[in-house]
Amino acid sequence: MDAPRRNAIIAFGSNLGDRVATIKQAANEVADLGGTVLLKLSPLYESAAVKPEGVDLDAPEYLNAVALISTDLPPEALLTELNGIEQDHGRERHERWGDRTLDLDIIWMDGVEMETERLTIPHPRAFERSFVVVPWNDVQPNAVVLPHGEIAALAEKFSNELHRFEVSA
């Protein structure tokens, strides 16, 4: 039996190295995953680094984006693939919420609610984060995720917390 095809939201973040190139290349690699189609990639946004103790203005700023994908990969298999892409881009995990070359998170997957040691869908903190909600609104403005509500309303609430990053030609 084939796995059901589902839409999903993937968050991209990078604050080390060539952030623009890393996110663009990672988006292409997500699009190349078997059984996966990249439907839309948001513009890039820049935001301050968030650490467990709060915003860290001394850390390099993040570039963030969100992709809307369609995939027939089950959630755990998708996470394994995303972790592989992170590793290919030099991701090291030394500290919680540490600086990184690439961070890929499954934020939401249509019809999936789960909590395991490795993966929680919907992502438990995504709805508190401007750098997820605002670009999500760019790729899926009609999304409604209970109990959080409409993505458009959440994005409006966070719209002053980050700015769109313009890539020079």
CATH uppermost class: Alpha Beta
Strand content: 25-35%
Number-wise, the strands total 12
- Terminal Cα separation, in Å? 46 Å
The stretches of 5 or more residues where confidence is low (pLDDT under 50) are none
Mean pLDDT: 90
State the CATH superfamily name.
Answer: 7,8-Dihydro-6-hydroxymethylpterin-pyrophosphokinase HPPK
Biggest pleated-sheet summary: 6 strands, antiparallel
Q: What report would you give on this structure?
A:
The chain has four helices and twelve strands; from the N terminus they run βαβββββαβββαββαβ. By secondary structure, the protein is of the alpha+beta class. It has a single domain (6-164), classed as Alpha-Beta Plaits, CATH 3.30.70.560. The strands form four sheets. Strands 1, 2, 3, 6, 7 and 12 form a six-stranded antiparallel beta sheet that branches. β4 and β5 (54-56) form a beta hairpin. It catalyses: 6-hydroxymethyl-7,8-dihydropterin + ATP = (7,8-dihydropterin-6-yl)methyl diphosphate + AMP + H(+). It comes from Aurantimicrobium photophilum.
